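Incident log entry.

Two folding requests arrived from the same account within the same minute. Monitoring flagged them as a possible duplicate submission, but the sequences differ. Recording both here for audit purposes.

Request one:
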Amino acid sequence: MAKTSASAMKNFEERLERLEDLGEKIRKSDIPLDEALKAFEEGIKLARTLEKDLDKIEGRIEVLMNNSSAGEDEKPELGLFDDE
């Protein structure tokens, strides 16, 4: 995910919510095996993309926190967390 805007964060949150829904669906004992397998496959794909996104976010935060040119009173701007 190359975007770092509030809409990208919402997209991340929506995908995380979808992953949680899939996990709940798989735990139900009354769904057919093929449906559970499809949900599992979708969940694995979502988990991988979310993990990549978190790695990118973590890297950006590390760069911002380790930026020695910023003064102590300056706060780094993280577009991910804007309320726009």
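Request two (distinct sequence, not a duplicate):
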Amino acid sequence: MTEAYPKCRQPLILRYHRLLEVFSKSNDVRDFYLDKVEGFLVFYDLDKGEEELALADAELKAHPDRFCSIPKLTYYETRKFMEGFVTEKVYDIDTKEKLLEIIGARGARENFLEFVYDNLTELDKWQQYYQERSRVRVIEWLRDNEVVFVFEEDLDLPTITMEKLKEHKFSARVSKDVSQARDVLDAKSKTYYSSDALNPRPKRGRPPKQQAKLEVEPELAGDFYTTVPSVLRMFLFAPDFSNAAAMFSEGFDTEEKLLASMKGSTEKPIDMKLHRLSQRLESLKQVSDRLKTMDVSDTGNALSSKDISEDTDKESKGLSSLLQGVIPKRKTKQTLKERAMKSKEKMKEVTRIRTRKPKK
């Protein structure tokens, strides 16, 4: 790198989840670049105006030693990710056969994620597998480009200290706490260049008991960039922390968009019993509303039993009139006489045919 750029006095503080998303989304349509001076990411978005794209393209080509192009994720690599997961992490025979069938068909990437999201046990394993394998790929690329770096997610420093480190990355003279934090960064950056970084060894001993994992978003310090060219400011790529499992999706940027696009309707079938019960409750509510508006002035303070009986008769008549049209009437049993009378009414009277006797 030429001396025209300011010299960073510490390893670049990069966010691993952003690099993971960039490596997953980089394809023939999307171009991403890493700045080796401050560590910010550039997204060459084709949806911008033609003039802005021309200026950004000229800036990127004018400084090839500063901006590194993120490699494209090929079809072979995506298939290798999925097949490696099925071979190493999936133990159920039926699930393994189904995933292999999905991988061999069209739209394997999105259909693979859809199937994994429907199986929570496989989703947890995929989350861990994808992060571990992608981490090796990202570290290997940074080492090939001779970038001295640390991942912010791997640091256990207070947020205030991280903000000071980002703000004074080019300063030669810093306070004591910043100087001590720089020593931590230097020691941590050397671990990424060790052999264990590319070949992580499995932990020995008995595996811990599986417990429900809580998805906790890490506390990360804000971004602080001072050397971003003016023509690249609108192309700055700085997304928030997102789920690693959904980053494998090519067409959807967030997990919410991925879940919304998944097949199948979320509407549940209507329970007819609950539907009938709700109708009855609605009818009772109408009755109570009518009772509230009912005029009860007729049932005043009457002392005689005669008045009380008259009032009760009025109330019963009022209630019966209210309940008409709301509660269906019961079918009363008809007596035998009433049935006979109705049957006679329905019968037609037919004149009797008289037969004549033959003459002798």
